């Protein structure tokens, strides 16, 4: 990349990062703000007109204020709950309905749900809107995958190799010459290959999240931004913005998705039609560039290329020591100690994907969480923790020695009528059952 263009490109990345940090948050959604969001969404989806994925992104959108659950929508719901007011449609979500940036089926309508506040810097807003609108049509495209833990991305080697992959992808995006781009892609794929060699489940787990969230974020960048330079700058920005995340377990695909998608656009414009049930973005990019399996003997040389002074490795080793201590504390509280066991049957989760942490092979720790199921609602706030076991059939929180079992250190449980807390299978544990079912589980 010529020096002047490189400086312009990096300046665009720096500008995006500054805008993300400085984007104003408005206290509560008003009709004018909602109309602005709806108009932006309509402009974006009409401009694409279904060209990218063969299906229009246009559809029902609701903006929800989490403080009072009030809704402002761009159309009426099929169930007739919302009412027209000043060019929008308003109402209130019932308490049991999940609030999150996600696809939501409510009152007979499939919605794109947006949680207030939304980003109002134009580039960030447009990427965000397209990402969430894509989620609404994603299942119909066959691009929704069952997700797994990606727990290997909270280990020393998993995190280190992922960040080396990101550094190589960033250089590939900024490369001005085709050969240089291909060489950097080969480096990224070598780090990816090694990471997956170290963990049996890594390939399938990572591929699923890259399809679910990575493709959505790529679509946001591709359709939300107008020029190739903007898109490439945003993809580099995405690779940098998640570096300070407490965990990469569920956030990594937001960074890698735009990078792989844009590089595939350059190498194989027909790649969208190749996303079968076992599709992997890295494998598609390797095939497009005819890159063979990496030679493990060259890995050390590749590592030095992206971590010349060993600073990244040193930082990750320090984090690993802290992680081991943190995991020991979580294990003592959530596995070895007395716990409240919550059966999971029809669960809905609301959480910050940047905070999830893997607890070895036991499951995933959620330091903040809103979990709803047949029995009611569990809310975990900062300072607390809940463990969702790997089989996703139960969650646990540390059980206090005293009290009624409805509150603990950093968590609160609200039970629906007809449910009660009873002794669990293990001494000191408690669990939830329907009243009248006895104390040994659900009817």
Would you give an account of this structure?
- The protein is of the alpha+beta class and 443 residues long.
- Among the domains are: 151-308, no CATH class; 338-434, no CATH class.
- The chain contains eleven helices and 18 strands.
- The strands form three sheets. A seven-stranded mixed sheet has the order 9-10-13-14-7-18-17, with helices on one face. Strands 3-4-2-1-6-5 form a six-stranded mixed sheet.
- β3 and β4 (88-92) form a beta hairpin.
- It is globular, with a radius of gyration of 23 Å.
- Residues 1-27 form the signal peptide.
- Keywords: Signal.
- InterPro entries: TAT_signal (IPR006311).
What's a quick, concise take on this entry?
With 443 residues, the protein is of the alpha+beta class. It contains eleven helices and 18 strands.
Q: Biggest β-sheet, characterized? A: 7 strands, mixed
- Main sheet: which strands, in order across? 9-10-13-14-7-18-17
Order of helices and strands: HHEEEEEEHHHHHHHHHEEEEEEEEEEEE
- Percent in strands: 15-25%
Strand-helix topology:
Layout: H1 3-22, H2 31-48, E1 61-64, E2 70-73, E3 83-85, E4 88-92, E5 102-106, E6 109-115, H3 122-137, H4 156-174, H5 178-198, H6 202-224, H7 228-241, H8 252-267, H9 281-289, H10 299-306, H11 311-336, E7 339-343, E8 348-351, E9 357-359, E10 363-366, E11 369-373, E12 376-380, E13 386-389, E14 394-398, E15 407-408, E16 411-415, E17 419-423, E18 430-434
Parallel strand pairs: 1-6, 7-18
Antiparallel strand pairs: 1-2, 2-4, 3-4, 5-6, 7-14, 8-11, 9-10, 10-13, 11-12, 12-16, 13-14, 15-16, 17-18
């Amino acid at each position: 990349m010529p020096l002047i263009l490189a400086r312009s490109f990096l300046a665009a990345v720096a500008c995006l990062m500054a805008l993300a940090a400085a984007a104003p948050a408005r206290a509560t959604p008003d009709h004018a703000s909602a109309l602005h969001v709806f108009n932006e969404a309509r402009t974006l989806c009409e401009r694409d007109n279904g060209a990218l994925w063969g299906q229009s992104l246009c559809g029902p959108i609701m903006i929800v204020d989490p403080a009072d659950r009030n809704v402002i929508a761009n159309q009426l719901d099929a169930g007739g709950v919302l009412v027209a007011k000043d060019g929008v449609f308003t109402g209130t979500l019932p308490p049991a309905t999940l609030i999150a940036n996600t696809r939501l089926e409510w009152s007979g309508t499939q919605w794109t749900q947006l949680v207030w506040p939304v980003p109002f810097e134009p580039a960030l807003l447009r990427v965000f809107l397209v990402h969430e609108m894509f989620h609404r049509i994603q299942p119909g495209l066959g691009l929704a995958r069952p997700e797994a833990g990606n727990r290997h991305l909270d280990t020393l080697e998993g995190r280190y190799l992922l960040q080396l992959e990101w550094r190589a992808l960033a250089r590939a995006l900024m490369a001005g010459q085709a050969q240089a781009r291909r060489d950097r892609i080969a480096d990224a794929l070598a780090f990816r290959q090694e990471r997956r060699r170290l963990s049996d489940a890594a390939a399938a787990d990572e591929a699923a999240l890259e399809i679910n969230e990575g493709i959505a974020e790529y679509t946001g960048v591709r359709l939300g931004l107008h020029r190739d330079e903007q898109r490439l700058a945003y993809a580099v920005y995405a690779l940098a913005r998640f570096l300070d995340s407490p965990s990469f377990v569920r956030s990594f695909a937001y960074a890698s998705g735009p990078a792989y998608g844009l590089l595939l656009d350059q190498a194989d414009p027909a790649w969208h039609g190749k996303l079968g049930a076992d599709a992997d973005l890295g494998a598609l990019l390797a095939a497009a560039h005819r890159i063979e399996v990496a030679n493990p003997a060259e890995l050390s040389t590749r590592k030095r290329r992206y971590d010349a002074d060993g600073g990244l490795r040193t930082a990750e080793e320090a984090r690993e020591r802290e992680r081991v201590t943190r995991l020991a504390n979580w294990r003592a509280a959530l596995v070895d100690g007395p716990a409240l066991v919550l059966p999971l049957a029809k669960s809905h989760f609301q959480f910050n994907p940047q905070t999830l942490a893997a607890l070895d092979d036991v499951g995933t720790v959620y330091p903040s969480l809103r979990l709803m199921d047949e029995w009611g609602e569990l809310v975990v706030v900062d300072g607390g923790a809940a463990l969702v076991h790997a089989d996703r059939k139960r969650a646990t929180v540390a059980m206090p020695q005293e009290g009624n079992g409805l509150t603990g250190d950093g968590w609160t449980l609200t039970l629906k009528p007809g449910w009660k807390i009873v002794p669990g299978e293990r001494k000191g544990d408690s669990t939830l059952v329907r009243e009248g079912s006895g104390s040994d589980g659900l009817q």
